Amino acid sequence: MISTAPRSEFCSNIRLTSTWMKQFGRKEGRKGAGYRLYGLMGRLKRILLWVLGVYITIPFLVKLCPSIQAKLVFLNFVRLPYFIDLKRPQDHGLNHTYNFYLQPETGVNIGVWHTVPDQMWKEAQGKDREWYDSTFKSPYPVMLYLHGNAGTRGGDHRVQLYKVLSLLGYHVVTFDYRGWGDSDGSPSESGMTSDALFLYQWMKERVGSKPLNVWGHSLGTGVATNLVRRLCDRGTPPNSLVLESPFTNIREEAKSHPFSMVYRYLPGFEWFFLDTISANDIRFASDENVDHISCPLLILHAEDDSVVPFHLGKKLYNIASQSKSLSGHKLQFIPFPVSLAYKHKFIYRSPELCAHIHCGKKCFAVDNSCLDLRPTEQK
Predict the structure, then answer these.
(1) By three-state DSSP, how is residue 374 classified?
(2) pLDDT tens digits for 252-279?
(3) For the chain, percent helix, then strand, then coil, each to nearest 5?
(4) Tens of pLDDT along 71-98?
């Protein structure tokens, strides 16, 4: 008879070994998970330290290199939409628009679009610059449009406004400041204002005594008030001034801008960022300019504007209402409620826009004749 004792003892040893291996594996697994968690926490700590380092470095970098702050104000390097040919406004549905270039000073060429009133679009097909220049002699009013920062004169919301104004019977002339779009040069507040003044004078020579109006949007409102202040100081104010989504001055706008949110409560915020803007000679002081403006003024602002907060437009209106130079001139503030969702750049969608702006008249309170788009002299 063969004994089974050694085999039983062997099997028992195997079971004990298996149990021990399982227990050892669980311990090692827990230890491995601990190592992985420790490694993850280490990586998170390094990332947080890197983010903190960047957060602290940026204010000093901006202070040491003020040109960075200027670029953030102008954003002229942001060309949205990309890959568009500014020489072909017809690609944007503007088939009654002509592209050309002017030279406000030696070595600086700026790109310009002239859109004729919608009533002339059939006649405009295939015409050259000479024909477009001759249309300034038509009885239709003229609007000089000054766009904001970033993008070009071909930005979609800008193009849509040109179409609306053209439909309302306006010549619309717009351009890219030096350093924007396909215009030469580098951006600056003085350069933008000089370009606007040059183009206004160029238009005035061709328009003569017909209504010539100025419309500014966002940063362009600062350019617009700079321009109109100069014109009024010379005794040659425009027919009217429209400010869409304006601010009081660039310091208050920069402090309220969403980009500044992460630094707004940082000790030394004004010294790091706002004083650096001033060091670049950038002011856009519309709150000061309105004390020198002597023409009808209309302010349009959406309550849900997150780029230029609504309260800045309202504050500018309150300042303007105390201006002695504006006494006797039409002054109006039009708010657009949150429910319309016009935000910063969609006021052109308002079906009441025609009733808010003047149609070749001297005031903004337009009656039902606003819907009659015939030239002023024919009404």
Answers:
(1) coil
(2) 999 998 888 888 888 888 998 899 999 9
(3) 50, 15, 35
(4) 999 999 998 778 889 999 999 999 999 9
* Full-model pTM: 0.84
Is 218 one of the annotated active-site residues of the chain?
yes
Instruction: Report pLDDT digits (tens) over 204-252.
Output: 999 998 899 999 999 999 999 999 999 999 999 999 999 999 999 999 9
Residue 280, C-beta contacts closer than 8 angstroms, at least 6 positions apart = 66, 67, 69, 70, 73, 188
To the query of whether residue 344 is one of the catalytic residues in this protein, the response is yes
- Mean pLDDT, rounded, of the chain: 87
**Helix (H) or strand (E) run with residue 346 in it:** none
> DSSP string covering 273-297, please?
IIHHHHHTT----HHHHGGG--S-E
C-alpha distances (whole Å) from 245 to each of 58, 90, 148, 263, 309 are 29, 28, 10, 24, 8
Report the pLDDT value the prediction gives residue 48, as an integer from 0 to 100: 85
How many Cβ atoms from other residues are within 10 Å of residue 54's Cβ? 10
- The enclosing H or E element of 72 equals helix 66-74
Choose the catalytic residue: 166, 171, 305, 358. Answer: 305
Question: pLDDT per residue over 134-143, tens digit each?
Answer: 999 999 999 9
Structure tokens at 163: 């179409």
Of these residues, 166, 183, 194, 218, which one is catalytic? Answer: 218
Q: What is the rounded end-to-end Cα distance, in angstroms, of the chain?
A: 130
Distance of CA 375 to the CA centre of its chain: 32
Q: Is omega for the bond preceding 81 within 30 degrees of 0, making it cis?
A: yes
Catalytic residue among 257, 301, 344, 358: 344
- Give percent of the chain above pLDDT 90: 67
Cα–Cα distance list, 58 to 71, 75, 185, 269, 278 (Å) = 14, 17, 27, 12, 18
CA proximity to 160, closest of 217, 204, 214, 202 = 217
